[in-house]
Give the backbone structure.
Amino acid sequence: MTPRAAFRRGGGLAAAILVSGAGLTARAASAEDAAAPKPWYQEIACNGFVSTSYSYGFNRPDSRTNAYRVFDFDDNTFKVDVAELVVQHPVAKPRESGFRVDMAMGGSVPRVSAAAGLFRDPMTGLAEDIDLQQAFASYVAPLGTGLRVDAGKFVTHFGAEVIQGYDGWNDNATRSFLFGYAIPFTHLGLRASYTFDPRLAATAMVVNGWDQATDDNRSKSAGAQLAITPYPAFTLYLNGMVGAEGANNESDLRRMFDVVASLKASRRVTVGVNLDYGEEDGAVPATPSRTAAWSGSAGYLRFTASDRLALIVRGEAFKDRDGVRTRVVQTLSELTLTPELRVSSNFILRGDLRLDRSSQRFFMKQAVDAFPTPPVSANASASF
C-alpha cells in the first residue's frame, strides 16, 4: 500500500475528464471450469485509462506556457494528457508470481514522467509522447504472511498524489508543486514489501535513483516506507530515501523525507496532509560546499456531497531555498478548488480553479503588463 494509492484520488482554471476501463479478465463461466486450475493466461487482466483536459491561464502568458505546472503546462488548448494501457498478472498469495506493464501515451504525462535512459533523448533530455511507465515482475516469497518482491520499473510510493492510472487517481485535476518538484516520479530496481498485520506494513527498495532507467553513476539509492494504520479511518506513511543522484558523482548524496497522513473524519469528509523535506550535497553551483535544501507542505480536504458530487480543496507551499528544484530561489504557494461530477463509476468530470503565487516576480503576463507591481507575483488558471 502506498500513500499515493491511498488517496485514490499562478492561479488558473483547469478541467479534466477521466475515463477508467473496467478490468477485462478472461474467466471460466461454468462451475466445472471454476473448480479446475486455470491456465496462467486466463489470469491476465487488461485495464485502460484516458485523461483529457483543457487549461486556461488568466495571466495569458505570451509563451502560452503555465509556469511550474507539472502536466498542465500548455495554456489555452485541449489535450490528451494520457491514454494508459495496463496488462498484468496480479499476485497476492505466497508462491504466486506475476507481472505488470503500463504503457502511457499522450501529450502531457509521458513528456514529463519519462525516466532518463528510456523514451528520453540522451542528448537533449527531451521525452516523446510515449512511455513505459511501469514494467516489473513480482513474486510473493513464502515467508510469514508473504514477502512480495518486485523487480523492474515502478512508480514511486512517495507523496500524496499519483501520476495517475485506472487503479488510483487524484482528487484534483492539476498536480501540486510538491508532486512536481519535491519527490521523484519513478524508480527502476528492486522493491520488497511485507505486511506485519493490518496496522503495520513496510516497503524497502534499492534502485538506480530518481527517474533513472539507466543509472548515470556507480552508486545506487535506497528507500523505505512504514505504513501505520492505528485504526481504519487513519493512515500514516513515513518515507525516506538517500543516494547519490549526480551524473558521474558518487560522493554527493541526496536525501528526501516524506510524510503523508490521511483521515476519514466522517462519511462525507476526508482530510490529508503531505510534508516533504529534501537536501543534496554540492548542488549549489555558486557554493559547491553548501548543501541545497527544499521543503513543502500541502493540505487536502474532500467533501462528498453525494454519490455523484464532491468538492475538493488543496492548499500548499513549497520553498526552494537554493533554487535547485525550480531554478529560482523562491517560495511557491497555491490554492485549488475542484468540483467533481461522477457521471458513472468509470467516468469523472473535474474542474480546477487555481491561484499560484511566487515570492519572486516570475509569473509572466502578456507583454503589455509583463509583471505585476507587488513583489509577489501571481497566476490564475482554470483546468478541466
Notes: Confidence is low (pLDDT under 50) at residues 1-11, 22-31, 368-375. The longest helix spans residues 177-182.
